[in-house]
Structure formats: C-alpha cells, structure tokens
Write a structure and sequence with these properties.
The chain is an alpha/beta fold. The chain is 37% helix and 14% strand. It has helices at residues 20-34, 41-54, 65-76, 92-100, 119-125, 145-155, 207-217, 238-248, 251-268, 298-307, 337-345, 357-368; strands at residues 58-62, 83-86, 104-107, 130-133, 158-162, 170-171, 174-175, 182-186, 200-204, 221-223, 226-227, 275-276, 291-294, 330-331, 346-349. The strands form four sheets. Strands 1-9-8-5-4-2-3-14 form an eight-stranded mixed sheet, with helices on both faces. Strands 12-13-15 form a three-stranded antiparallel sheet. Strands 6-7 form a two-stranded antiparallel sheet. Strand 6 and strand 7 form a beta hairpin. Bound molecules: pyridoxal-5'-phosphate (PLP). Pyridoxal-5'-phosphate binds at residues 64-66, 90-91, 93-94, 136, 162, 164-165, 186, 188, 198, 200.
Length: 372
C-alpha cells in the first residue's frame, strides 16, 4: 500500500448533500429574522418531524443526549433509591445521565460478538431496586429488543433506550426509541443526524412523560413563572432545530451510504489479525454510526493505519467502571470481562457517508496489509 497524500478523515462535514448548504443558510436567516430564538415554532416543527421519523407520538427537544437521559428518567419518576441497569461499553454520558437523575447505575456485561448489552448479565444484575433497563444501541445497531422487552415486562421493570448512535435503526420494523418508555437521542455534530452545536431529544408515546419532560427542560415551569417542580435549563434552540429539520431530509440517503460502506468493509476486509463484529441479521437493524473492528494488537493496527494516512478512533478505550467516578458502581457478580476485553481490542475505522469509494478501498487495503 502506497502512502497516500491526503488523509482519510474520520469525520468530514465539508461534503454535504447537494443543495443542503443553501437550505441551511436559508433556515438560519429565517430564524434570525423571526426574532424567536428558544422553544419556538422551529422546535415544534422539528419535534413533530422527529417523532414521525421514530414512529412515536411525541418528541421533546432538549440541549443534549445526556440531558435527554436525565430528563426522561426523572419524568418517569426514576430517582434516588432506584437502580438502572446499563452497559459499561458506552459513551460516559449514559452513566452520567442515570446518575444525574438521582438513580444508581448498575453495570451488566456485553456480548462479545456485538458489543451490546448481554441479557443474561442483566438478569444477574436485577434486584428489588431495579426500576429500568437501559440498553445502548452502540455503533448504530439495535438488537434483541423483543426478548429484552418481554423480560422487562415479566419482571415489572421499565425499558429505556439510549439511541444516540442509532437514528432510524429498526428491529422488526420498529425504530430505535419506539421500543420503550422513551428513547434518548443526541444530535452532537458527529452523530448520524447532527446539529451544528449541542442538541438532543427524547421520544415517547406517553403523553404524561412528554409533558413532564417539557416541564423539566424549562425550569419545571407549568405556566409562565409558575414552577411546580425543580427543573433545569435544557432547551433546544430554534437555530439547531431549524438545522436539524433541513438535515433530517437527507438522513435516509446518508444511512444508505453508510450501509454501502459497511458492506464494502465486510466483504473486503480479510486479515487473520483483524476480526469484525457479528453482522446484524437484517440490514434495517444497523445504521452503522461506527464501523468497529477488533484486534489483539490494536495499538499496532492503529499505528499502521495512521502511517497510511487513515484516521481511526477508539470507542471506547476505558469502560465506565474503570473511570474514576464510577469505580465502585455495582455490577454483574461475574465481572465485566467482555467489556474490558472489548475496550482493549476495538478500533473504529472511518465509515461516514463523506467517504469516497476510493477512500473505502484504501482503508480496506490498509487493514489487509497489517501484519502483527
Ligand atoms: C451512546 C451515547 N449516549 C449519550 C451520548 C451523549 O450525547 P451528548 O453528547 O449530546 O450529550 C452520546 C454522544 O456523545 C452517545 O454516543
């Protein structure tokens, strides 16, 4: 493999879809001219569009994916004394959101073949204090929701989804976020649907939950200057909402491109020192937010790719229970060995819709030329 002159970027926002830039600029101008900047008509429109996209009755726009988790849990009445079972192989915001609701995160292990929450481990974490199980659709893949949801119903615990990496991923036709009490989304710029700043939303079909969430995001306000509960400031602004509505129009085509790239990696990568995660049974299950490979010599693989001009990242190098604030969190009595092993071996290849076919080919050739 020849050293290329231009790097293969992990993220690149310059090549947006045809005409999107002018539509974005128009929407920004419209918001500036409207004189309405927070929780106005653009937010209402995006919430309607996003709820439709997810197949839920309501969406509540908030300031970030982290806030969506906190606000959603609080809106369900989950708080101090309650336990929420989740995975340590996630963005730390999942754990912070649970913790900020006042509830206690409890960590279950992952399935090594997918990196997703392992139901058998969840069962070992279950206690009389468990109120919610919170799977994370990591890397864009939704899996096992029917089985998990049946189990949650049978033991009387709520189900909540962290959908921040899985905008529009579906299982048996049901979108991420529509499987549970609420789904939390981040629209951080690098997400499959990204704003040009921080933004988030929760989706739900529970009217009372949606109303409570709207209250909490705005200081606990019921009517102007009447505060029934102590809320926070987590309002989505008009500018980000308008931008998200424009970008939502191309989300499906971006997902199609992500699937093509993932398919090329699946068929092209062939190296005994590099393993792939198990493919999803159905294309609709995975929106390929990240394409992750595993290698025992992850550092060597990353260095090799860097030398060939290919940017990579690690999602995530340190599982939640090995982060300083969370070392003492309760967990599966058998430990979290799969998550620890995954954290040491996983490497995310560039796989966004910005990649040209030639770049995809360069990544495949570079991965295949890695020798331990
Ligand atoms: C799985 C997951 N959960 C939560 C978050 C938090 O979202 P935000 O950065 O918008 O707070 C992110 C993204 O950073 C994420 O990937």
């Amino acid at each position: 493999v020849r050293k290329p002159t231009s790097p293969v970027f992990f993220n690149d926002f310059s090549g947006s879809p045809e005409g999107e830039r002018s539509r974005l600029l128009e929407s920004i101008e419209r918001v500036i001219d409207s004189g309405f900047y927070i929780l106005g008509p653009e937010v209402v429109e995006f919430e309607t569009n996003w709820a439709n996209y997810c197949g839920t009755d309501f969406a509540v726009g908030v300031a970030s994916g982290l806030d969506a988790i906190e606000i959603g849990l609080r809106s369900m009445g989950v708080g101090p004394g309650d336990e929420v079972i989740t995975t340590p192989m996630t963005a730390i915001a999942t754990i912070i959101g649970i913790s900020r609701s006042g509830a206690t995160p409890v960590l279950a292990d992952i399935e090594p073949s997918t990196g997703l929450l392992d139901l058998e481990s969840v069962k070992r974490c279950f206690s009389a204090s468990t109120k919610v199980v919170l799977p994370v659709h990591l890397y864009g893949r939704i899996s096992g929701m029917k089985v998990l949801s049946d189990w949650a119903d049978s033991v009387g615990v709520g189900l909540v989804e962290d959908c921040s990496q899985a905008h529009g991923a579906k299982e048996v036709g049901v979108a991420s976020g529509a499987w549970s009490k609420f789904g939390a989304f981040s629209f951080y710029p690098t997400k499959n649907l990204g704003a040009i700043g921080d933004a988030g939303a929760l989706v739900t079909s529970d009217l009372a939950l949606a109303e409570k969430a709207r209250q909490i995001r705005n200081y606990g306000q019921t009517n102007r200057y009447v505060h029934a509960i102590e809320g926070i400031n987590s309002r989505l602004d008009e500018l980000q909402a308008a931008i998200l509505t424009v970008k939502l129009a191309s989300l499906n085509s971006m997902t199609v491109r992500r699937r093509e790239i993932a398919e090329s990696y699946r068929s092209g990568i062939d190296n005994p020192h590099v393993r792939l995660l198990a493919p999803a049974p159905d294309a609709e299950n995975d929106v390929h937010h990240l394409f992750v490979v595993l290698s025992r010599n992850r550092a060597g693989l990353q260095e090799h790719l860097t030398e060939l001009g290919i940017q990579t990242l690690i999602h995530y190098p340190i599982p939640a229970h090995m982060q300083t604030p969370y070392r003492n969190l309760a967990r599966d009595p058998r430990g979290l060995g799969n998550a620890e092993n995954h954290a040491q071996t996983c490497l995310s290849l560039p796989a966004g819709p910005h990649l040209e076919d030639e770049e995809v080919g360069r990544v495949i050739a570079a991965v295949n030329s890695f020798a331990v």
